[in-house]
Amino acid sequence: MNPLEHSHSIYIRATPEQVWQALTDPALTTQYFFGGAMQSDWRVGSEYRLTSPDGANVQFDGAVLESEPGRRLVQSVRIKFNPAFVGHDEMSIAWDIEPFGEACRVTISHRGAPTTTQVFAFVTSHCADLLSGMKTLLETGTPLRIDQPSQARPHV
Fold first, then answer.
1. Are 79 and 88 a contacting pair, CB within 8 Å?
2. Which run of H or of E encompasses 131?
3. Contact at 8 Å (CB) between 108 and 93?
4. pTM value surpassing 0.90
């Protein structure tokens, strides 16, 4: 069967280095990644995890599959925040950063096995929120606050 695939892009007025920092620095991820602190050394083969801001709960984790600072980050994904999704077949998420003048096009791409349909749909439904939050933070220095029902976003 063909894998599930989804991607979403946005232009951000920032350098590739600033976008990379936003992806990998827990001080920044907590401001746009639904409050989650992303933690890793970001070397290929290393583990990473997204924890609640206090570090008490792992929301999702996996391995760093590719790491090219300022260009591309690919991670495997294991969901932990929803008991219904624990134990799903792994998915991957890729972050591609392409410079365009004074901006970068940032593309988030997900790939998953057909057996991950439910979790895949849930995770990919938040791409626009996530990238909009990163864009606002990098362009204004202020986090974006989107009011939405608590059940509609990851519990971080």
1. yes
2. helix 127-140
3. yes
4. no
Task: Judge contact between 49 and 61, C-beta under 8 A.
Answer: yes
103 CB burial (10 A radius; 0-12, 13-18, 19+) = middle
Composition of the chain by helix, strand, coil, percent to 5: 30, 35, 35
CB-based contact 120:5 (threshold 8 Å)? no
The answer to whether 143 touches 136, Cβ cutoff 8 Å, is yes
Q: If you ran DSSP here, which 8-state letter would residue 99 be given? A: E
- Domain chopping of the chain, boundaries: 4-145
Bridge partners (DSSP) listed for residue 27: none
CATH number of the domain at 4-145, out of 3.40.50.2000, 3.30.530.20, 2.40.10.340, 3.30.950.10?
3.30.530.20
Q: What is the pLDDT of residues 97-153, one digit of tens each?
A: 999 999 999 999 999 887 778 888 888 888 999 999 999 999 999 999 876 555 444
